[in-house]
Amino acid sequence: xxxxxxxxxxxxxxxxxxxxxxxxxxxxxxxxxxxxxxxxxxxxxxxxxxxxxxxxxxxxxxxxxxxxxxxxxxxxxxxxxxxxxxxxxxxxxxxxxxxxxxxxxxxxxxxxxxxxxxxxxxxxxxxxxxxxxxxxxxxxxxxxxxxxxxxxxxxxxxxxxxxxxxxxxxxxxxxxxxxxxxxxxxxxxxxxxxxxxxxxxxxxxxxxxxxxxxxxxxxxxxxxxxxxxxxxxxxxxxxxxxxxxxxxxxxxxxxxxxxxxxxxxxxxxxxxxxxxxxx
Length: 279
Description:
The structure is a single chain. By secondary structure, the chain is mostly beta strands. It is built from two helices and 15 strands. Strands 5, 7, 8, 12, 13, 14 and 15 form a seven-stranded mixed β-sheet that branches. It has a four-stranded antiparallel β-sheet with strand order 2-1-6-11, with no helix packed on it. Strands 3-4 form a two-stranded antiparallel ribbon. The radius of gyration is 18 Å and the shape is globular.
């Protein structure tokens, strides 16, 4: 987990509340959905990164803190963890100590499903070496903010708490367990997908708390997508799938009994920034 601002690439975990465990948050109703914690304890940071309003920064995702292309074939993310990628901000008095959860969050970017290719934002993230480009709104006030990069893995999302959120509105409160972008079977050809949470904040426009409209294409066209081919072959496998593993869908020949329980997987990267404007 790293941030690049302008030409400066900061060290791994610099100004980031880094989880000490790489597992997901699976319950969107808990306070941990905002900033990790609970099952994913975080390490505090006293560092702050200065960013310019209107500039684009890059949040860099890694499978683990030590993952590299040479030692981890899935050094960005397991390619089966398909889903949307988003970013949020929250203005705070002291970004190094603020608890994070609660009101004040606003979404600043999102990317979901390209229905033409069936390519997900997480696949684009992998193809882009884990780099999530985030534009800081040009109109927001100077001061300290929490910048929250987020991805949601939907490979086990056909049951409640099946989507996996890895880290506005209030967090928790922005997502419901039965929201169409949270409770979904991605192992079929989808004709639409509703990205969880509100529509992104736009300078000069009223902030909406409504859910993002279904997308017919990915919101970013600068990254490549992969095409997913569907078939009509019936599932023939037996046995119980692993937790978070696939347990059905067109063409699936593996285990067809889903693990008991309800699973959701969210990952979030919480970055401490100070926003300023050029004179």
